[in-house]
Design brief:
The protein is an alpha+beta fold. It is built from 5 helices and 8 strands. Strands 1-2-3-4-5-6 form a 6-stranded antiparallel beta sheet, covered by helices on one side. Strands 7-8 form a two-stranded antiparallel ribbon. InterPro entries: Znf_FLYWCH.
């Protein structure tokens, strides 16, 4: 059995990775024991689960997955992509390529390909778009947006605040 690794999902939730399988938190049992189920249990009917005390002490593993384990490259790409999306959403002024270069310099991207880097950059742009307001597409929407913002007059010029 390989080491238990804790990563963040695309939605920011905790996942445990054990032997190439991702498990999501299911519920807390009596005595502070946490039950984690396979993250693909919904659509493939995988019934595998594990129980832990905290996040590192494994108590029980029911390892009856009905699909092959994920490749280490895929797990690494998901981990890098999710961490960069989180960092880029916290700092909207930094260019996405700077985040990617910083992550690659740390050495977390040995298994990433050019296609992976392009996908990660697109993921960062997509996650940032959720924080920015939608651009108006019609003249009516432009006028509605302009009426929404307060206007201050200095001399003969109008300024939007």
């Amino acid at each position: 059995m390989s080491a238990l690794k804790c990563i963040l999902s695309e939605k920011g939730k905790e996942l445990l990775v054990l032997d190439g399988y991702k498990c999501r938190f299911h519920k807390e049992l009596t005595g502070g024991i946490k039950r984690w189920v396979c993250s693909v249990s919904g659509n493939k009917k995988c019934t595998a689960y594990l129980k832990t005390e905290g996040k590192t002490n494994i108590i029980e593993v029911v390892d009856n997955h009905n699909y092959p384990p994920l490749d280490e490259k895929i797990l690494n790409r998901n981990e890098v992509s999710n961490s960069l999306k989180r960092k880029a959403s916290e700092d909207l002024s930094e260019r996405p390529l700077k985040f990617i270069h910083r992550e690659l310099r740390k050495g977390d991207g040995e298994t990433l390909t050019n296609c992976d880097v392009t996908c990660i950059r697109n993921n960062i742009y997509h996650s940032r778009r959720s924080f920015l307001p939608k651009l108006p597409t019609t003249q009516r929407e432009v006028h509605n947006v302009l009426n929404f913002y307060p206007v201050m007059k200095i001399g003969a010029k109008l300024f939007f605040l």
